Amino acid sequence: MSDLMFDDLQIAVLLPCYNEEATIGDVVAGFRRELPNAHVFVYDNNSSDRTAILAARAGATVVREPRQGKGHVVRRMFADIDADIYVMADGDGTYAPEDAPDLVRTLVTERSDMVVGTRRGVTADAGRSGHAFGNRLFNFIYTALFGRDFTDIFSGYRVFNRRFAKSFPALSGGFEIETEMSVHASMLRMPVSELTLDYGRRPEGSDSKLSTFKDGFKILWMLMLLVKETRPFLFFSSISGAMLIASLAFMAPVLAEYFETGLVSRLPTWIAAIALLMISMLFFVAGVILDSLARSRAEHKRMLYMGLPTTRGEPRAVGVDQRPSGGKARKSIAA
Q1: Which residues form the Glycosyltransferase 2-like domain (predicted)?
Q2: What pLDDT is attached to residue 203?
Q3: What is the DSSP letter of 17?
Q4: Across the strands, what pairs with 291?
Q5: Distance CA 115, CA 61 (A)
């Protein structure tokens, strides 16, 4: 990348890997070629093959993360590495290093906190049909719950500035980490961008680590947890509404009988209906209270986010120098 405006920016390429010996050497070499000033990190997640050795031979800094799961790796990477720009991709060769300069350029010129490389051709491999259906389904659910900020919440090709990386809590343990990233950006109303890119095929000997049903369930569970934590009124009022409908369904025949005969012969049914009505009211009140707490948490997260510089030592506004006291920004990446 020849852009002179990036010469003073420290760029870290982050590659979480698990058994990617068939591709990791070419991937590291590709990123070193396309981003010659970047420092490439490969985080080996308990690989049983030669992933770590081949990555080191290709010129990457290799770090081992013993907790299994992509989410654990991302949490470790963001905690360990201090850079201006973070480029995250996979080590399987499905994301082209040649696209990295465009993603970085978009991040800087659009002044975004995150740029997502949305995938074109995700169904090119026959084995991805189930993944593609799940991708469309979860993107639809995400849009309904959190808005239209993203069209591909599962893309693993992303570029972040320092402000995003250091404000992201990374609570997920597995492949649901991309969903958590998207929700983090949506809830804090961060400036984000998307860039449509070609999605490559895995070569022979490289197998997908994503399980359509197992990981799909984990992602759905994570979505539910994130809705509960970030939009508790929607979450608890939905349960309250379901309980209210059930209560009315039990209550209707009892009331019909009472108005017709003046008797209540189905006393257990009436008690169940009243119990469901009370539970419905409790869930509704809980939603109201927790919504206030969630707003307070969001305000604190926003203030923390606003207190972080987008890059180390970069002024936040043109003509305003807000560098930390002590002089220039550091010129090396700390790992």
Answers
A1: 13-165
A2: 57
A3: E
A4: none
A5: 24
Q: What is the pTM of this model?
A: 0.79
**In 3-state terms, what secondary structure has residue 70?**
helix
Containing 130, the helix (H) or strand (E) segment is helix 129-146
Q: Give the up-direction half-sphere exposure of residue 7: CA atoms within 13 A in the CB hemisphere.
A: 4
pLDDT in tens, 210-265: 666 676 788 888 888 889 989 999 999 999 999 999 999 999 999 999 898 988 88
3-state class (DSSP) for residue 164? helix
Q: What CATH fold (topology level) applies to the domain 4-230?
A: Spore Coat Polysaccharide Biosynthesis Protein SpsA; Chain A (3.90.550)
For residues 141 and 127, give the distance between their C-alpha atoms in angstroms, rounded to a whole number.
23
Domain positions in the chain are: 4-230, 232-306
Contact 27, 2 (CB under 8 A): no
CA 171 to chain CA centroid, Å, is 10
Q: β-strand 192-198 against 158-161: which pairing, if any?
A: unpaired
**Per-residue pLDDT averaged across 181-188, rounded?**
93
